[in-house]
Amino acid sequence: MNNSSFFSTLFLLANFAFQGVYVAGTTFTFVNKCGYTVWPGLLAGASSPKLDSTGFELPQGGTRTFQAPAGWSGRFWGRTNCNFDASGAGSCATGDCGSGQLGCNGAGATPPATLAEFTLNGSDGKDFYDVSLVDGYNLPMIVESSGGSGGCETTGCLVDLNRRCPTELQSEGGGACRSACEAFGNPEYCCSGEYSSPATCKPTAYSQLFKSACPRAYSYAYDDASSTFTCSGADYIITFCPSTPSQKSSMDPSPGSVGANSGSSTASGGVTESGSGSGSASLMADGSWLANLASGDSTNTRHPTIALQIALFFVIASLLTSLYN
């Protein structure tokens, strides 16, 4: 190696080691605190790679972790009452993705389903995330951050909305709660047609019912201000059924009928999302697809660990020794 090449390499290694230019991915950890098995579904955005799985079984008390690269976007949800054979063929009563397999293989959740949505390293390098009921609701879910800086608030819904779901929105024998858009198809509920803008699509009695139960979650398509959250450099924990049975029962009145003429506004396809809340007994709301909210470069950088810096120091020292020996 000539001196010029050597010192160029040395400069790059030193810059990497001591200025902290180290692009890292994000860890997603799924936790099942339900009293039953949940089968999470995973869907990557159109420009994002698939994670290690697109659907898996998560038994009661189970956890599983995935790594996502910088700039990844996608959504997660829980499927319930599933039956899969030894080959992985089967289906689920709620949240089914229609693939006929344990893995969703690029297919999204069939409404109604509670959704967690992420865009990593979006505008200004921030992660954008929400929990959405725009596609309805099937089980309690929260998103918590681990590490990171910025707002980094917890979001989701602790309430079992299936117990307070209006009769006209009930699905799967009370195992899920539809959005008003899916139930009725009216433009004012779907934020479509002449109701396709924030100025014309407003909260309705249905969306307000969800919002009162889970004030930080998306309750209709244009609920962004109170339901979209940001964090930088964090990992995330997605927990199914985070609340205790006593909390659920104390917060779930008997369901009634809200009335078909006073429904909640939702995005096309009835997507409802939930926003973030920190420690509140009620965390839930409808939300919009975050890939459209957080565009920008994927510039999240994290400092290398002390161990990495030490290792790089010894690499540089070794190169110096070989040069002058």
UniProtKB/TrEMBL annotation:
Keywords: Membrane, Transmembrane, Transmembrane helix. Residues 247-280 are annotated as: Disordered. The chain crosses the membrane at residues 306-324. Residues 256-280 have a biased composition (Low complexity). CDD domains: TLP-PA. Pfam families: Thaumatin. InterPro entries: Osmotin/thaumatin-like_sf (IPR037176), Thaumatin (IPR001938), Thaumatin_CS (IPR017949). This is Thaumatin-like protein 1. It comes from Saponaria officinalis (Common soapwort).
